Amino acid sequence: MHEFLAQLANGVELGAIYALIALGYTLVYGILELINFAHGDVYTFGSFTALVVLVALRAAHFLHGAGLILGIVAALAVAILACALLNAGIERLAYRRLRKAPRLAPLITAIGVSFMLENLIELWQGAAPVPFPNVIPNPELEIGALQVGVQQIVVVALAIATMVALHYFVKRSRLGKAMRAVAQDRDAASLVGIDVDRTIAITFLIAGALAGVAGFVGGVSFGSAWFLNGFGAGLRAFTAAVLGGIGNIAGAMLGGFLIGLLESFSTWFIGGQWSNVAVFSVLILVLVFRPSGLLGESLPEKV
Amino acid sequence: MSALLDVRGLEVRYGGIVALRGIDFQVEEGEIVALLGANGAGKTTTLRAISGLLPIRAGELFFAGTNLRKHGADAIARLGIAHVPEGRRVFTRMTVRENLELGGYAVSSRRELDSRIEDALSIFPRLRERIVQRAGTLSGGEQQMLAIGRGLVARPRLLVLDEPSLGLAPLIAAQIFEVLRDIHRRGTTIVLVEQNAHAALALADRGYVLRNGEIARNDTAANLARDPAVIAAYLGGS
Q: B residues 58-97 near A, CB within 8 Å?
């Protein structure tokens, strides 16, 4: 029972991170029908920017008392901003000029951007994993039979708050409606006065910001950052987005948590070396038997 | 006095194919102008070029003195041209209200937007009953009402309609034309592309007949409706 609950908590924590990354895939797919393979590397970039800020603040002996909270907020904010700008920059430089090209062209470009980012991050931070500053105090809390760390609670709470904010933004705000309109019918959107290029740029900003949050919580959760982290995490998150129904926001969240739980429980039952097999088997099964995903309709609800 | 919409020498190509070979036409403020012609004559292409959805090869387009060639589709919409496209193109996965709200995307005041939506709903009471439904669940006629309503929320100076009666039951089509007459009476200039030439000429002040990407005829609606050649080609014989 103890072990089961511990794996459940781990799965939810992992799932929160995957869900945040999956949202980035799904938002961009919804609006451009492009699988942004560089997205996982934007997540890696977020981990490293947060890490660099925290290391610098620790070296300046800033991370005590109220400074600790401020420092964490600063690291998170810098990661969000850096990833948002990076993602929008990628769209502007690499994808926008391919808007009218055959669909294979931006897809291959995305893979190229992914390689570039991985290599640039390796140049910047080296090929070995870098320990993530252990800044959030992590006493274990006992809730009945459930033992959870404060870190786990922070990670999951931050992820869920971000997702709730995103949900209301897309459903209610003027820009959110513009994003949905562009995702559904670009010409019709421009005919009502929506600037399509700007709306797509904003979508990349938001997807990048989500990767920034994910990069921060991922660094906290895994305790390290590595230049290739985004490759594996990105593939799992992509699987999550497909499982939920790519283009569907609620689906990305659901898929993220399901993949996190699957990874956690498959590690427990059959061993960590098999968790990839479990996760990617799901990808294959979904693609074969329900390509529109759990929440996707025959045409997925985009954005 | 210059026309509200002034099109001169408009030329559009799809790849190597010439779709419009230099057409000229004008729309005065307060008019209803019909564009007639067979399938492939270039009617829809003309409308899409005006709205900025197609790249223009040559020619000049002026709307209220503004050169439209310098603007993208979204900016042209904000200048006061509302284009109700062929096939309605409502946002099917959004509610009726959200569609109407998007029609007023350029309106920043919430109160102003709500009052404009209220106006559109009073013109199309059917939409009020469907206000929380997804647009995709509406019938064809209701979707056409929504598409026109969405255009009206922008309070356009020029309303451009592409085949508003296509695929609708005759009774519904007649209702739509009645509403267009009403909208025009309230001061909106209208350009109309329509398969149903009878209905279009009954509504319009003037008409242009397109053939193979050129203007073949240009006359008052009354004269066109009497013209034997037009009758034979577009009005189904005598």
A: 72-75, 77-78, 82-83, 85, 89-94
Interface test with A, best of B86, B93, B112 (most A CBs within 10 A): B93
Query: Taking the mean position of all CA atoms in its chain, how far away is CA B146?
Result: 14
Smallest Cβ distance to B74: which of A177, A195, A301? A195
**pLDDT tens figures, B110-150:** 999 999 999 999 999 999 999 999 999 999 999 999 999 99
CA distance A44 to B66: 48
Q: How far is Cα B65 from Cα B128, in angstroms, rounded to an integer?
A: 37
**Cβ of A194 under 8 Å from any chain B Cβ?**
yes
Q: In what order do the strands lie in the sheet with B17-27?
A: B17-27, B5-14, B58-63, B66-67
Chain B residues whose CB is inside 8 A of the A185 CB are 89, 91
**Which two structure tokens, joined as six digits, stand for B210?**
């397109």
Q: In angstroms, what CA-CA distances link B103 with A162, A178, A189, A190, A221? A: 29, 11, 9, 10, 45
Could you write out the three-class secondary structure of chain B? CCCCEEEEEEEEEECCEEEEEEEEEEECCCCEEEEEECCCCCHHHHHHHHCCCCCCCEEEEEECCEEHHHCCHHHHHHHCEEEECCCCCCCCCCEHHHHHHHHCCCCCCHHHHHHHHHHHHHHCHHHHHCCCCEHHHCCHHHHHHHHHHHHHHCCCCEEEEECCCCCCCHHHHHHHHHHHHHHHHCCCEEEEECCCHHHHHHHCCEEEEEECCEEEEEEEHHHHHHCHHHHHHHCCCC
pLDDT computed for residue A303 by the predictor: 45
**Cα A13 from Cα A157, distance rounded (Å):** 9
User: Is residue B44 a contact partner of residue B86, using CB atoms and an 8 Å limit?
Assistant: yes
Regarding pTM above 0.90, the answer is: yes
Could you tell me which chain A residue has the CA closest to the CA of B79? Answer: A193
ipTM score assigned to the predicted complex: 0.94
Q: Cβ A191–B92 below 8 Å, yes or no?
A: no
Do the chains contact at A189 and B102, CB–CB below 8 Å?
yes
Percent over 70 (pLDDT), chain B = 98
Residues of chain A scoring pLDDT < 50: 299-303
* B222-233 tens-digit pLDDT: 999 998 888 877
* HSE toward the beta carbon, residue A133, CA cutoff 13 A: 20
Per CATH, the number for A2-289 is: 1.10.3470
3 state DSSP class of A119:
helix
How many beta-carbon contacts under 8 Å exist across A and B?
63
Vertex B157 angle, CA B153 and B160, to 5°: 80
Q: Say whether residue A191 is in contact with chain B using an 8 A CB cutoff.
A: yes
